[in-house]
Automatic annotation (TrEMBL):
Gene Ontology cellular-component annotations: cytosol
Taxonomic placement: Bacteria, Bacillati, Cyanobacteriota, Cyanophyceae, Oscillatoriophycideae
EC number: 2.5.1.72
Entry function: Catalyzes the condensation of iminoaspartate with dihydroxyacetone phosphate to form quinolinate.
Signal sequence region: none
Protein name: Quinolinate synthase
Cofactor binding mode and count: Binds 1 [4Fe-4S] cluster per subunit.
Chief localisation class: cytoplasm
Cofactor: [4Fe-4S] cluster
SUPFAM superfamilies found in the cross-reference section: NadA-like (SSF142754)
Residues reported to bind [4Fe-4S] cluster: C87, C173, C266
NCBIfam families given in the database record: nadA, PRK09375.1-2
Reaction catalysis annotation: iminosuccinate + dihydroxyacetone phosphate = quinolinate + phosphate + 2 H2O + H(+)
The species this protein was found in: Cyanobacterium stanieri (strain ATCC 29140 / PCC 7202)
PANTHER family: QUINOLINATE SYNTHASE, CHLOROPLASTIC, QUINOLINATE SYNTHETASE A
Amino acid sequence: NNIPDDLFSAIALLKEELNAVILAHYYQEGDIQDIADYIGDSLGLSQQAANTSADVILFAGVHFMAETAKILNPDKLVLLPDLEAGCSLADSCPPDAFAQFKAQHPDHIVISYINCTAEIKALSDIICTSSNAVSIVNQIPPEQKIIFAPDKNLGRYVSEQTGRDLVLWDGSCIVHETFSEKRIVELKVQNPDAQILAHPECETPVLRHADYIGSTTALLKYSQGSECDKFIIATEPGIIHQMQKQAPHKVFIPAPSTSNCNCNECPYMRLNTLEKVYLALKNKTPEIIIPEPTRSKALKPIQRMLEMSK
Ligand code: 13P
Ligand code: SF4
């Protein structure tokens, strides 16, 4: 496998040959965002996947995102540059244990955050993302009991916003739970003119200090629309590439983790590289495959989400 010097041109050529589209999440490295046809949050990416006319989808994100694209497009080739690009939240919810949990709450419907495997989606009634979770829960009749899985932090936030009691699965994201409340407050003291923007996957002590809470797309929009020109960003720092690109004069400071590591970078998202994107298109592998009936069972709650998000 010879790697060309100009990966940007080589990828553009392969895309044309294959009639491929590149969908990238904001947590991908800057170069990947720059070659993508569409960059978005989980909801935006699934809406794009539902509407694409491409024959091949190269998903620059993590496994559950590429799976969602495949569930929506069983006849298209869906490629993920690195199959090891998983997610701690998806891993925190094994299907067998979740099926037992569900059986213990027979009068509940299941709303699952999109950050879960196809098997968990197949056990769910409705899927949500961080941008529509509050609105989706608000659309459910108040007497209907709800299990919310797998992210307990997002679940707690949605429960507070909607005033609903949710039965929560005990999962969390290794990136968002690593932010240090103490160090964020210290940073704010040094930068009193900065606003704190946080993703709802963060823990409550961090969210308490946030000036604005939202999905990656919502955080990006807020940072562009706000009159403030300095922000502390409590989510994966890949998003800062777009924030900075769209507002070069503004200052974006990544929120610190509890230790001096790069723990706020998602190790799964970072497995994808421009070179792997090129190789995936060239070799038409690694491909996402989802067996039936899991795929068709998982499709229904995704379609419900898309309908409820119009
Ligand atoms: P959103 O892009 O929907 O905000 O989700 C963030 C995330 O953790 C994706 O893995
Ligand atoms: Fe999963 Fe967290 Fe990485 Fe998102 S940032 S893919 S939730 S581990």
